[in-house]
Amino acid sequence: MKLSLISLLLFASFSVYAENVNIKSIQPEKTINDQKIFQQHTEQQKAAAIDVQEVSSHVALAPTLIQKISNIHDLSTQASQVFLRLDKNLDVIDAAGQTRFPLQSYLGNASRRTIPVLEIQDVATLKALKILSKTHDISDITLLSHHADLLRQAHDLIPMVRTALDLRSNTYLANNPKDLDIIVQKTNQAYARIAVIPNQYINKNNVSFLQKLLITVWADSAAATQKEAATVLISGVNGILATRSDLFHTVLKQFPQNTLLRKPFIIGHRGVPTLEDENTLESARHAVHLGADIIENDIYITQDKHLVVMHDETVDRTTDGKGKIENMTLAEVKQLTTKARKRKIPTLAEYFESIKPVNNVVLMVELKSANPQLVSALKAQVEQYSFQNHLVTTSFRREQTNQVKSHLSGVSTGMLVGNMPNTGNLFSNAYQIMQDTQKYSSTYHPAYRSDLVALMGMTKHRGITFWPWALDDQTFKKLYVAGTHGITTNSAQLYSKYIVDIKTAAAVTVKSGQKFYINAELKTQDGTQFKGKANQYIVLSDSPSHQFSPKKDAITFTSKGTAYVLAGYRYQIDQQYFYHIFTGPIKVIIQ
C-alpha cells in the first residue's frame, strides 16, 4: 500500500504497567489489565519517518533489501534501504575513505523513499549525530558498527536511533553451535536488535535459531546470479545488504502468493492450556510434543526467594488454595495442586530441567512480578542451569526489562503491549512502535489489532519483529500466512500438522521433452516426516526453454542443458488460507 509522507507526532515517553486480575477460564487474550500513559511534547515535533518504497513481491513479509552505495549517483535504487559509510564530519565516504557527499544532503531530500543504514567508526561521529538530532529528527536511521561498545554508547547518547551489530569480519566465529550463542549474546549486549552475521552462517537452520531467540538477522551478499540470490533468500533472513539488490528483487517477484521464506514460530501459551492445566510441566511437555517452537510461561518469586511458575498474582483461580503467591513459601506452594487435573505447581528450575534437553525449544519467560529481586533470582537460576541459550524474556513491566538489560545482558527481551490506542494513521502507529522498541531494545509482543499486518510490513525495514499473543484460530491463520515472526496460541494442537519444510535431492537428471516432478521429503510442525512430491516450481533465468503444467506442479524442458529450479509445496490450511514453502536452487541436468 502506498501512503503519502505525513507529519507525525513524536511522543516523549511511554510506559505501560499492568495489574493482574483473576479470571474464570482460559481466555484467548492475556488476562492483564494494561494501563497506558502517554506523555506528549507541548511543542509538537515533526518526525522523519519515511514512506519507504517497497519491493513488489508475493512473499509474506519479504526481507528488506539494503543496497550498498558508494556514490551519490547510485542512490537511485529499487531497494528500501541504502548502506552508507559515515565519518565524524557526517560526510558519506567511499571504501577508500574519500568524501562523496554530506549526510544532510541525503536526509534533506524531500523525495527520497529509502532509509539510511550508516556504518560508523568512532565516538566523534556519535557526538556529531547527537548535535544533529537537536535540529533534525534522525530516529528513522540505523547505525551499524562492528564495535559493540560504540553501539552501547549510541544507545545512551542518541536513544531514539536503532542499531545493528556487524559481525561479518569476526574471525573468532567458526560456524559451530556455540558461536551462534555468542552472536545472540553480543547482539544483546550491544543493545542492538539487528545482527549482520558472517556468510558461513547463512542457512535456514542457523538463521532460524537466531530468530527464535528474538534476533533480527541480516545477511551480506555479493550475489551475482539469481541462483546465488535465491540461496540467500531461502535462508529466511530478515534483511539483505546487497551489492546488487536488483537480483533479489527479480527473484522475489517470481514467488507465488503467500510464500513463506521464514517459518512463523508457534509459541505454546502457558504450554497447551486447552488440553492440559496451564503453566504446569505436563502442559509444557505436551506443547513440545505437539511441535511448539517456544514455550511461554509466567514467573513470580516466593517469600523465601524461589522462582515459581504461575500466571495470576493469586493462586485462587487455578489451584485448590487461596492467597497471593508471593506471600507464600516454596513449601506452601508445593502443597498446592491445580483444580482440574491435580498437577503440582512447578518451579522455574523444574522447567529448566524439563525443557533444556529438548533440542531447539526455547523458553519464553514472562516477568509477571514487580518484585525488584525477581531478575537477580532469575540470573542465579539461569547461570546454575546454563540456560542462557534457551531463554528469552518478556514483560509488561518496563522496569523489569531494564533489569534484564543490566543483569542478564546477553538475553533477549520482548515488550508486551496490550490494546494500544489506534490513531487511525498507519505511519503514526508504526512510528510509536519504532520509538518504544528502540528505547528498550526489544521485540514487539502486542495484542491483536486490525492494522497488525500492515504495521509488520512497514516496520520490518526498521528491524522490528512481531510476536502477537493468545489469538483465536482464524486470527492465527491470518497472521501465519502473513509471515508473522512468532504467534502465541492456547491450542498448539491445531497447527501441529502444518507442513513447514521441504527437502529434495541437490541435483536431478531429466529427459528433454518429458514432464517431470521432483520427489521431496516433507516435514510437519510436530516433526513428522513423510515422502511426497513438490507441487510448485520456479525456474530461474538462463535456463533451457521449458513449459509448466497448468497448475505449475510439473515442468517440461524442451531443450537440453542445465537449469536451476526451486521446488515448492503449497499447503492448503482450509478453504480460505494457504501458503507456499520452497527449497533452495536444485541443479537440473536436461539430457
From TrEMBL:
EC numbers: 3.1.4.46
InterPro entries: GP_PDE_dom (IPR030395), PLC-like_Pdiesterase_TIM-brl (IPR017946)
GO biological process: lipid metabolic process
GP-PDE domain: residues covered: 264-520
Top-level EC class: hydrolase
Pfam families per the UniProt record, alphabetical: GDPD (PF03009)
Superkingdom field: Bacteria
Secretion signal, residue range per the UniProt entry: 1-18
UniProt entry keywords in alphabetical sequence: Hydrolase, Signal
Annotated GO MF terms: glycerophosphodiester phosphodiesterase activity
Entry-linked SUPFAM superfamilies: PLC-like phosphodiesterases
Matches recorded under Gene3D superfamilies: Phosphatidylinositol (PI) phosphodiesterase
Protein name per the record: Putative glycerophosphoryl diester phosphodiesterase 1
Taxonomic source organism: Acinetobacter stercoris
Lineage, top ranks: Bacteria, Pseudomonadati, Pseudomonadota, Gammaproteobacteria, Moraxellales
